Amino acid sequence: MSSLSLAARDSSTMLRRNLLHARRYPSLTLNLLLTPIVLLLLFVYIFGDAMSSVIGGGGPDRSAYIAYVVPGLLLMTIGSTVVGTAVSVSNDMTEGIIARFRTMAIHRPSVLIGHVLGSVLQSVMSVILVGVVAVAIGFRSVDATALEWLAAFGLLVLFATALTWIAVGMGLVSPNAEAASNNAMPLILLPLLSSAFTPVGSMPGWFRPIAEYQPFTPAIETLRGLLLGSEIGADGWLAVAWCLGLAVLGYFWSAAKFDRDAA
Question: Are 187 and 168 in contact (CB under 8 A)?
């Protein structure tokens, strides 16, 4: 068997393993998924009328704020989902299963690849679920073309892949599951400090650099532009650059830590 076919076979096996774990122990995924759904309902129904005046500059119109807030919450859903990946990787490292895998004739990186593929699939399914809830409460994307929908889906997958590799690295450096969950908490907090819920221009001057110079804001603005037909500008290239940079950083960080632990 060639190296490529061996890698594909072992990676698919590890993917099935991680999906089975997610199915048998769904509580962590559900708990992390509930956060963006609760925030969606909270901001729309509690703050929606007031925030729509800030967003649109007109009278209260909850539908305007639904359209504004949903793209940010879709990306926040990815950040929430990959926290479970950090916990899962940490559990594997501390419970001894990785040591057993290392004694077997398997493609070593397939262990991490299985986690990444499984997490990306879970992220996509979580985004779809949050999207269904958003549509149910009034979100509409009537101005997006088929190409823009495809680009939006590609951005979500790319963003999920980037954050997953970062989460894998966080799980590898964590001594236990609790530490992994705490280390990955910025992936949930960063969207709160971005343009997900309010425009950057309405923030205090001292706070704007925090919102502007981070990966979530350009990704949110790009997704918002694709789904709502608004101007994207340089945010598209910034979002792709952030995704590629984080993915490469997370991959080499994770690979180096995994190989070092094996030595």
Answer: no
Q: Which two tokens stand for residue 109?
A: 């990186």
Per residue in 39-76, is it b (16+ CB within 10 Å) or e — as a string? bbeebbeebbeebbeebeeeeeebebbbbbbbbbbbbb
Q: Which of 3-12, 175-184, 226-235, 243-252 has the lowest mean pLDDT?
A: 3-12
How do residues 124-133 score in pLDDT, each as one tens digit?
988 999 999 9
Under DSSP, the state recorded for 139 is -
Q: Where are the beta strands (DSSP E) in 17-138?
A: none
Query: What one-letter code names the amino acid at 83?
Result: V
Q: What is the pTM of this model?
A: 0.88
- Percentage of the chain with pLDDT > 70? 85
| Rg (the chain; Cα; Å) | 19
**Strand ranges (DSSP E) for the chain?**
none
Dist CA 203 CA 200 (whole Å): 5
